[in-house]
Design goal:
With 181 residues, this protein is α/β, with parallel strands linked by helices. It has a single domain, classed as Vaccinia Virus protein VP39 (Rossmann fold, 3-Layer(aba) Sandwich), CATH 3.40.50. The protein is built from five helices and seven strands, in the order βαβαββαβααββ. Strands 3-2-1-4-5-7-6 form a seven-stranded mixed β-sheet, with helices on both faces. β1, α1 and β2 form a beta-alpha-beta unit.
Length: 181
């Protein structure tokens, strides 16, 4: 309780709600939606969510514009594969640098994404191999604390798009817990 946590690319706000409850009334969630969220009803959906939860501040800028060293923790869920697959290593490093920079020294982050397999078209499948994510996280300067198996799903063989209806949104996912030294 009492932490400031950034929900990076918060999307529909599912994790924002979870984090809001976890940090309690003394904590704060910076729900980073980016400027694109303003294209849909001028961000009113996100503002309504913030008003409902009370300890959430919607952020309609790029994460790199949030004050550096201002967060105790960060979370990004199912976003990193897009940074890597569609913007390459340079885009992936820019995405991770923004997370790194917003964290206070000693701050922690969780990086969750759809598990991919080397050699498959992970861009088309919207996936990323955990080994690739690990290498990118280490290159960005993060200390790997844990690769959690909490979101593993052995029934997903990584060959289908994460949007395939047969998966029922239950993909095999990795979750790295990392720290900014």
């Amino acid at each position: 309780e009492g932490w400031t946590v950034v929900d990076v690319s918060a999307g529909g706000g599912w994790f924002t709600r979870v984090i809001s409850a976890a940090v309690g009334p003394e904590g704060k969630v910076l729900a980073q939606f980016g400027e694109r969220a303003l294209q849909n009803n001028n961000g009113q959906t996100q503002r309504d969510l913030a008003a409902q939860l009370g300890n959430v501040e919607p952020v309609f800028t790029e994460l790199s514009e949030v004050a550096p060293n201002s967060a105790d923790a960060a979370l990004t869920a199912l976003n990193f594969h897009d940074a890597y697959n569609f913007r390459g290593e340079e885009g992936a490093q820019a995405f991770l640098k923004a997370i790194y920079d917003v964290l206070k020294p000693g701050g922690v982050a969780a990086i969750i994404d759809h598990e991919g397999t080397e050699g498959l078209d992970n861009a088309d499948l919207h996936r990323l191999p955990a080994a690739t994510a690990r290498a990118q996280l280490e290159k960005a300067g993060f200390e790997i604390l844990q690769l959690s198996e909490a979101l593993d799903n052995p029934a997903d063989d990584h060959t289908l798009s994460v949007r395939d209806p047969s998966l029922e949104r239950a993909t095999d996912q990795f979750m790295f817990i990392v720290r900014k030294p």
